[in-house]
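Entry type: protein chain
Record version: 2
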Amino acid sequence: MARPQPGDYGHYYENYVNRVDADNLQQVIEKYARPLISFYSNLPGEKADYRYEAGKWSLKDLLQHIIDTERIMSYRILRIARNDSTPLPGFEENDYAASANASARSFDSLKEEFIALRKSTDLLLQSFTEAQLNNAGTASGYRATANGIGFIIFGHMLHHKQVIEERYL
């Protein structure tokens, strides 16, 4: 299974896909799964409620956003890989963040959920055949393959890793 091509995901995900330096989804998992779990699970507790600017998300909010997005994208992958042709709607990340109440959770509980979800997503991705990864559906009004969404998940985490390194730590 090769890298996704334009048309395998919505154009606005190009930045995420381009962050992923691997030729196929198995390489993506091998290269990024452990380092990303390590990075996010070792975020300093004293920075949990830190916001780099008024009105921006705290680290707790950001980690909850990453969890929510991965969960939604995993659901999309499952539906598309299983050849469900029902168009999948988009989601408004700011509405999710406002409703998540991440500030009331412990940072450790968010990290624990992140680790469990990451492992679950990787197992899901590894369960698919090449044909299933090539299946295409519609997500947020755009054609998307299961493979393309897999790359998006990792690119999204890499994007936020960079944001955290530059603005939070």
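Comment: The chain is about 60% helix and 5% strand.
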